[in-house]
Amino acid sequence: MHQLKITAIGNSAGIILPKELLARLGVEKGDSIELHDDGQGGLRIVKSGDAYAAAMAAGLDCFERYPQTMADLAK
Q: What one-character DSSP code corresponds to residue 50?
């Protein structure tokens, strides 16, 4: 586990990711990342365009297009 401090960046706030975390994510300066709500109060950080992000986008599309079907399947 890494504990990171929220830092002021201009009028915004941000965190600085250590090199080890950047390497683990497979990203470097200038790359884009995505934050996904895990539904349990946490976040998952993924490199934009990776398989996880594509699967999440497809799943969210299904939930938006077929809300009643998804509700019935959840029973």
A: S
Residue-wise pLDDT tens digits, 20-70: 999 998 899 888 888 888 888 999 888 887 777 778 888 888 889 999 998
**Integer angstrom CA distances of residue 45 from 9, 13, 25, 62, 68:** 20, 17, 8, 22, 29
DSSP letter string, 63-75? HHH-HHHHHHHT-
Q: Is pTM beyond 0.85 here?
A: no
CA distance readout (Å), 51 to 14, 54, 55, 65, 75: 26, 5, 6, 21, 28
CA distance 30 to 66: 36
